[in-house]
Amino acid sequence: MNTYAIPPLVTSILILAYGIFVLRQNIKSSVNITFSLMTFATFLWLFFISMTYLSPDEKLALFWDKNAYLGVIFIPVTIYHFTVTFLGLKNQRKFILLSYIIAIIFLFLSRTNYFISGVRHYFFGYYTKAGLIHPLFLIFFMAMILISIYNLYKEYKKAEIGSLRHVRIKYMFFGILIASFGAIDFLADYGVEFYPFGFTFVIAFIFISGYAIVKYRLLDIEAFTYRTLGYMAISFLILASYTGVFTLIHRMFHKKFENPILTGGLLLVFLFIFMGIKNKIWKLIDRVFYRDKYKYRETLNAFSKSLNVLMDLEELLTMIVNIIADTVRINKASIMILDDGKQEYFVKNQKGISSPEVRLSKDDPFVTWLFSQGGVVEKEMLGMDPWYSKMKEVGLQRFRELESEICIPLIVGNQMVGLLNLGKKISGEIYKKDDIELLSSLGAQSAIAIHNAITYHSLEKRTEQLLTMCKIGQDVGSSLELDTVAKTLLNNIKSTMRAEIVSILLLDEETERLVIKASCGLDEEVAKNTSLKIGEKISGWVAQHAQPALVNDIESDPRFAKRSHEKYYTRSLVSVPLMLKGKVIGVVNVNNKETKRAFTFYDLEMLMGICGEASVIVENARLYTALRQSYLRTIQSLAEALDAKNRYTRGHVSRVCDYAIKIATELNLSQSEIENIATAAMLHDIGKIGIKETILLKPGKLTDSEYNEIKKHPETSVKIIKPIGLSEEILSIIRHHHEWYNGKGYPKGLIDEKIPIGARILSVADAFDAMVSERPYRKAFTKEGAMEELRKCNSSQFDPEIVETFLKIV
Q: Transmembrane ranges (predicted)?
């Protein structure tokens, strides 16, 4: 055994395993492909040159030597190809084909004595003897290498200093530069006797590029180590077998195997054997080295499916923190939630954190930066990637405060509902590529689940507040409808004060302007368009000073001036602020007595007394209306969020509402009936929030128990909505929108006219939109197909009159 052949042989196996592994990471990546071509060409050179060293005679040595040039000739071309692809040099792509053509020409020439005239016998074994045209190849070889190195150097200078691209090019530049020193072996082709040590520069290239791969997370370090060892072992077995068989044939038959077809055929046979057994070998390797990884991946996948089941925020957060901490095996984890009142993120749930009282303002630079990143951010990257340089100092400080190595912003739409912070692994390992991908996916799903839980919790709180306000309202007045309260107050003042004009202006807290809520005696246009700043005109003055105003004669009162453009004539007026706890909430104006006399202090005291009592009623009514509208918007937002979360039902609620309004309008229903139907349409599926997604998105037929869960959603919707105080007509539409005209629907099995007309309308609109939308278990109907289906179900599932009306307008 020639020991001089061992170093290049081992290096060839190493570079082959390295190249195959890189290719396997992303077989579609042009960078990975060209990198692997470069390593394969290097493998051919080193492997066949080691066979040359091992050859017992000159003929076999010459055969192996010429095969070595299969790799040598393509090394400079593949290096150039790789650098052009790696650097993204589109303007040089046209030269790649030309370089390959030249290489192929040299490949054919290498089979002649003009290129390789024979072999010399040195102390380490046989080696190439350069022919007449060999120097031309050397010129081509060095030119391609120098161009490649120049490209790397030029792009290195152009890249932003310290950027990830700058760092990666730097390592690749030095790796290829050092590897190019392997060309020193060409000296032995021209009679310089020394042991060719070019393989050492190849080893240096593997270590330099491998370090960059590991350091800058192009590949998984654990996978890199174990899989490379696996490839090395497999490659060694295949290549050793191939070499042994070929040498045995040569010695047995004493043949000169110069035919590349025969050589290539034998190599293909061994590659075919390798392809047949590689999957079994990889399963064995994965089972040995990746048992824990597979185990925790399955746990996380199962966990992500159960996220949306919990609606209790505390239970949900505890589950997220505990399962992630236990599965990924980290020492610290916390979830921060936004405190809307203080506009701060605070630790809502944690494990292992020593300072859980830490808070971050919503406007904190680190928080806004996290939101802009939109994904997993690692502490390590802050210190490594210059793109993060502006946030490096603040970011590292925040990571220390949060006791974390990873921050995952929990984003839903354009809102960041919280932060998931993860500390170091107990094992001390870094977070790997698979960890980041899984945590990123988990973060997105957790964000939706937390958002739903917060919304649901907010909904419950608003319901409690609303019930409290309802009770207060019953104590202070017979009605909490702001319009009704305003109209009643208006009529009472008019009759009591015997006034021609009465108006009630309420302060809009958002715009800080006074707008007319109710009036009598004013032009509709004036009432509609009046909007006063605080301090503007008499009403604005009263609101600004929180003082009443009694004006006997407006033209002679120095505090106010008559506006010539006013569309009504004011002689005398009383203006009193509506106040609650020292705060102005509106103004009541009374203009002109019916008797044509001026208002007196008696009138002023009367109006002040009425306004004092009315302020509580008006404020309660306004708060009730605002809360009800807010509650309704919350439910609608929740319905739309539930709707939008599923791509199959995205936009379903708004479309159904539009269809239902058109049907109701065509049937000449009253405005109040149309409004009731529209409200019901927006809220009809809110009850599905309690149904598991596995049921809602099931691609196959539902089981009886699953279908029974679906059938509960109308009653669940009513249960959620009822505390708002919506009319029974709206609740009835929601409750019965799945009833069938023939009595075979649910939940009550009502028949024909016993089903509320709004529910019958909603049933048609809901069914049509469901049919023309894609579902997990079927493709979308065409519009014509859906219309035909409505006709088929006419009189059985749907009211025939409503179907006919809908088909006219759709």
A: 6-23, 35-56, 68-88, 95-112, 132-150, 171-188, 194-214, 226-249, 261-277
- Please, which residues bridge with residue 126 across strands? 121
DSSP secondary structure string, 15-30? HHHHHHHHHHH-TT-H
Question: Residue 285's pLDDT is what?
Answer: 56
Read off the pLDDT of residues 368-422 as tens digits, 9 standing for 90 and up: 988 988 888 888 777 555 566 678 888 889 999 999 989 999 998 888 999 999 9
Helix residue ranges per DSSP H, 254-361:
260-289, 291-306, 313-328
Question: Is the Cβ–Cβ distance between 611 and 542 less than 8 Å?
Answer: no
SS (H, E, C) 40-84: HHHHHHHHHHHHHHHCCCHHHHHHHHHHHHHHHHHHHHHHHHHHH
Q: What DSSP string describes 654-675?
A: HHHHHHHHHHHHHTT--HHHHH
Among left, alpha and beta (phi > 0; psi -120 to 50; other), residue 299 is: alpha
CA angle 67, 70, 75 (to 5 degrees): 140
The CATH H-level superfamily of 646-809 is: Hypothetical protein af1432 (1.10.3210.10)
Topology of domain 300-457, CATH: Beta-Lactamase (3.30.450)
Q: Is the pLDDT of residue 257 over 80?
A: no
In angstroms, how far is the first alpha carbon of the chain from the final one?
Answer: 87
* 8 A C-beta contact, residue 713 and residue 691: yes
What value does the mean pLDDT take over residues 26-50?
A: 91
Handedness of CA 394, 397, 401, 402 (dihedral sign): positive
| Pairwise CA distance, residues 404 & 397, whole Å | 11
The model's pLDDT over 758-783, given as tens digits with 9 standing for 90+, comes to 999 998 888 888 888 877 767 888 88
**Dist. CA 799–CA 755, nearest whole Å:** 10
Q: Measured between alpha carbons, how far is 211 from 18 in angstroms, rounded to an integer?
A: 13
- Give the residue carrying structure tokens 């497999």: 234
Look at residue 8 in the predicted model and tell me its pLDDT: 92
- Is residue 53 within 8 Å of 2, Cβ to Cβ? yes
Using an 8 Å Cβ cutoff, are 147 and 139 in contact?
A: no
pLDDT of 655 above 70: yes
Which phi and psi (to 5°) does residue 646 adopt? Answer: -105, 115
pLDDT above 60: residue 682: yes
User: Homologous superfamily of 482-619 in CATH?
Assistant: GAF domain (3.30.450.40)
Q: Which of 392, 405, 414 has its CA nearest to residue 436?
A: 405
How many Å apart are CA 232 and CA 254, to the nearest integer? 31
